[in-house]
Amino acid sequence: MRDAFQLDGKTALVTGGSRGLGLVFARGLGLAGARVVINGRNEEQLSAAVKTLQESGIDAAGYSFDVTDPESVAAAWPRMTAEVGDIEILVNNAGIQHRAPLEEFPFDDWQRILRTNLTSPFVVAKQAVRSMIPRRRGKIINICSMQSELGRRTIAPYAASKGGLKMLTRAMAVEWAQHNIQVNGVGPGYFLTEMTQPLADNPEFDAWLKGRTPAGRWGDPEELLGALALLASPASDFINGQVIYVDGGLSAAI
Ligand SMILES: NC(=O)c1ccc[n+]([C@@H]2O[C@H](COP(=O)([O-])OP(=O)(O)OC[C@H]3O[C@@H](n4cnc5c(N)ncnc54)[C@H](OP(=O)(O)O)[C@@H]3O)[C@@H](O)[C@H]2O)c1
Fold it and tell me: Where exactly are the structural domains of the chain?
């Protein structure tokens, strides 16, 4: 059983791994034995995150590129893989949020959200499978959301992007299963990070969330690592196109 979750010798890339859930994912994969590569646009934050991982004894590196820009991804890829090896586990985690009533939603913000949350997993996965296909091995984990299933006022583009990402996960899985590549998703409920800080600071939202979630609380980011470990490891070699919701029961309740 322990061997089924073994990540020793594997190289994992976590996009948007410089803070928040991505940094927790990188730490988890690193402590499970993988060499981890994290990414983000802010180089200072990225270097600081790499340093904290290395201080925990993790084999970590950071590469700054914009996942929404195919040219930026293509330019970073050869240098990155020459230094750390081919990416065998890809966690498409980089994501953004912007809240506004839909009838007032700025078009540029709509585009930015769709590009980051939905288009970039395609852009980065397209690079990663170039080496996964000939090796006949690979794991891709797309970080979805409650909004892959449920709508909520003021975040329509986010919901559209995360609903799309659930279907992209299935479509990638169907297309690449023949190459022994498994593509699945993790759908976090509500976890405290920079993205959700405005919600946590709002006592009304905080009370609503605790009442609405059967577990009665926010999630601790470390609680996402069980699903991640399953989907990153040989334990999931016949699991394709699934999204595991880690949400304290929120999506099961009305
Ligand atoms: N927190 C939650 O409760 C929750 C719930 C459900 C789903 N999620 C999902 O989980 C993922 C992580 O969320 P989080 O809460 O950890 O967010 P966060 O704290 O805001 O971190 C986002 C990360 O993405 C990076 N990023 C954003 N745009 C990028 C770009 N164009 N290119 C490269 N990196 C980029 C950021 O670095 P730079 O800004 O330096 O680029 C940062 O490292 C997102 O996909 C989010 O939708 C979160």
Answer: 3-246
Helix axes 120-135 and 156-176, enclosed angle (nearest 10): 10
Q: What is the distance in A from the centroid of ligand 1 to the CA of 41?
A: 11
What is the CA(15)–ligand 1 centre distance, in A? Answer: 8
Predicted pLDDT at 3: 87
**pLDDT tens across 104-158, in order?**
999 999 999 999 999 999 999 999 999 999 999 999 999 999 999 999 999 999 9
Residue in 195, 217, 220, 245 to alter for ligand 1 test, most ligand atoms within 8 A of Cβ: 195
Residue 39 — φ and ψ, nearest 5°? Answer: -140, 160
pTM equals 0.98
Query: Phi, psi (5° rounding) for residue 105?
Result: -65, 125
Q: What is the pLDDT of residue 109?
A: 98
Per-residue pLDDT, 25: 98
- CATH 3.40.50.720 for domain 3-246: yes
DSSP 172-212: HHHHHGGGTEEEEEEEE--B-STTTHHHHT-HHHHHHHHHH
Token pair 């009370």: residue: 207
